[in-house]
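Service request form, structural biology core

Requester: graduate student, group of Dr. S.
Request type: structure prediction, single chain
Budget code: on file
Notes: please return the result as structure tokens.

Sequence provided:
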Amino acid sequence: MTLHASVESGSGFANPVQSSQAVFRCVMNALARPGSVQRVTEKVNAPSLLMPAAAAVALSLFDHDTPIWIDDRVAAEPEIAAWLRFQTGAPLTSDASRAAFALMHSSAAVPDFKTFALGTPEYPDRSTTLVVQVETLTKGPELILSGPGIRGASTLRAGALPSDFVPRMQANRALFPRGVDLLLICGTELVALPRSTHIAAREA
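Core staff response, request fulfilled:
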């Protein structure tokens, strides 16, 4: 996953430069500490279907060099596509395998990860980062996380994840250094699950 702060004129941020940099740092902190909940404090003007943190991530990371794939529910709201194009300059693509980022209104809408770009052994950064809105980051089945950036193990609860989320993430981890990275968004909060993170379900 290659990230760089993007600042476009006419941004949905009140203070585009400062806010974009702050959100960029928030995302980097989340990636460095997988499973940790980070709060986006920057105010953003965006269509109502987009949660504040999702809109802030879009303003900070999307640009004219990052093709975006959006799910059917997001695509059904024309103002979102128009907002993304105007605010970020990012082109929209219907081919998920070409997308640098994928934006989904809920975790139930996440297609098979193989639908997206998984990178190559030579260029693992040429993969899709999934930006997924979820109902909660405090409730749901307990997940056990381990790997780089995690001391020992940590836990995560996120509501309404697909029933096969754990095996999906395990298969994604097995592709390392290839694979997708995930940003789970709930309101103003976000959690990163990089491809290097091992995820298991808590045994009953």
